[in-house]
Every structure is written in C-alpha cells, then in structure tokens.
Amino acid sequence: MQRVHGRLPGEVAIVTGASSGIGAATARELARRGATVILAARRADMLEAQVRSIREAGGQAIAIPADVADPSDVTMLADRAMAVCGRVDVLVNNAGAFWSTALASSSPGQITDLAQVNLLGAMLLTRAVLPGMLARRHGAIISVGSLSGRMAMEPLYSATKYGLRGFSLALRRQLAGTGVSVSLVSPGKIDTAMTQAQGVTGPLPPPEMVARVVADLAARPRREVVVPARHYVLAWLEQLSPGAADVAFRWRGWSPVHNQPAVTP
C-alpha cells in the first residue's frame, strides 16, 4: 500500500514499550495518521488506558500484553498480531530499560536481562515479523535506540544500544531492494518517566517529538535520525575526536560514581 504525505492509512503497526513515554506517544501518532496500532508492553492496565485514549480520539488500537525479554512472549505477540490483523506492516522496537549501576556491582543476571530487553527482544521480534514483510515486499522496521548508542556513556546500557544500532544499520543493508525499510531513531534525554527516575533536571523535549520522527520514518524511511538534532554535534564529536569526547564526558559529569560493593560472580 502506498504511503502518501506521511499518512499511514490501512497500515498495521506493532509498538513495543507502548504503555508510557515514547512508546505511548508513538502509538498515538501512528493511529492519528491512520494506522491500526497494536500496543505491547508488560503493564496491561496502562496498555488498556492508552488503547482507550486512541479509540476515543477516533483511532484503531489493540492491546497485547507481552514482555519482549521473554522469547515465548515475543512469539505470542507476533502470532496474535497476525491472527487479529492478518499482517504487520510497521514494527517499532521501542521497549527498553535504562541501567546506571557500575559493572562491578551488576550481577550476571542483571546484565543478561538488560541485553534481553534492549537488544535481543528487538532482534527476535524483527525476525518474527520479517518473513511476512518480505513475502509482501512491504514493511518498515524502526528501532528506538539512544544517543548512548552513538556516544559511550554507560558500559552496559551503551553496549545494548550500540548493538541495536549495529543490528539496524546492518539489517538495512541486508534488506536493500526487498521493499522492507529499516530505520533507527537515536534520542538524547527525553521527558519520560525513565529520565525522571534518573533525576534529570531542566527542560527536556517531549516524547511526542520522537513519536513524530518515528511516524515520519514509517512513511519516508531514512537510515538514522538523532533527536533533538543538536545532539548530532555530540555524535560526531565521539566519532571524529574520541579524546575530546572523553574530556567533554568528564567535564559534563556524565560518569556516575558508584560506591556499591562488587557483586560476587
């Protein structure tokens, strides 16, 4: 189905991590542009609230509670989406978790759990919906990464986001000419519950800014978009002059000091 002027009439989209923040805003934006949106997250009550809000605004939405850290839930989500809607045209891999505990204080289980949520869940869900997209020669896969996937800020979190970025950019090349686009959104700090929990202060861009970019990429794919655009400076600083980025990192106080005892392996 041809996409015209940023609208997505008749498209079926899955958005993970859709119970709040960027995911919820993205689901609303996709529905506003005419897509039928499948909202997925662990918190069923919050998902249902988002679905009601979309339907009250005249959109079409379905809630499917699922935990992308659980491979069986990933399979269930893809299967139910196909059973209810018959296809998936747009996948937004948005589910993610932040981490700021020092590596020596992180348990092996915590490390693998973070990788499962931030990276492996997106890879598995993409794999689940991709064959149908390829068969129809139509689809858009959009992953929400982070500026931490362009600039090393926290070892574990950055590792998962660098991995998601590598996965997206390489998959884009692999799928060239198939009719399935792959795009990446790399936000900086956005005004969400996650950043509030981190104690981030000062005015921050709203999640709707990222949501509009995601919806635009479903209609007009691009390789990667950094949001807000001013953060391209930091991204390029890391690539062109990592030594200067090290100085800027220390000057801005981005490296948290942790005094927790190391976790016994």
Keywords for this structure?
alpha/beta, 265 residues, Rossmann fold, 7-stranded parallel β-sheet
The tally of beta strands, per DSSP, is 7
CATH architecture: 3-Layer(aba) Sandwich
| Portion in beta strands | 5-15%
Could you state the CATH homologous superfamily? NAD(P)-binding Rossmann-like Domain
Q: Count of helical segments?
A: 9
CATH class: Alpha Beta
In short:
By secondary structure, the protein is an alpha/beta fold. Helix content is 48%, strand content 15%. The radius of gyration is 18 Å and the shape is globular.
Provide a descriptive summary of the structure in words:
With 265 residues, the protein is of the alpha/beta class. It has one domain (12-251): NAD(P)-binding Rossmann-like Domain (Rossmann fold). 48% of the residues lie in helices and 15% in strands. It has nine helices and seven strands. Helix 1 (21-32) links the parallel strand 1 (12-16) and strand 2. The chain is globular, with a radius of gyration of 18 Å. Mean pLDDT is 87; it is low at 1-5 and 256-265.
